[in-house]
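Entry type: protein chain
Record version: 2
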Amino acid sequence: QVQLVESGGGLVQPGGSLRLSCAASGFGSYGYAVGWFRQAPGKEREGVSCISSSGDYTYSMDSVEGRFTISRDNRKNTVYLQMDSLEPEDSAIYYCAAATTTKLMCVTTAREYPYWGQGTQVTVSS
């Protein structure tokens, strides 16, 4: 049974940093891509970043490019989202999602990901 567990959210001041973790289990020997998504109150869910199963390909949306970095440690079955220079507009519930795949790339289209974590709250406020 696939399980994704996010951690690392919290309250941080503008300009601060947080590192989110997504611990995955249940994939066995199958490769899987991971995406990070976020949803703020009253707003639609948006795809923030993704990483391919090998980790060789990553993508981040324009508004976080240069501030957020996605990475993975396949030995630990964990994907990270390092978030620097946080802005109040980054406040949201952040979800990680995964999909088994043999593709070399990844996408931030929610419907492509059948497995989802429970989410972790990120609040950027002074």
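Comment: The mean pLDDT is 96.
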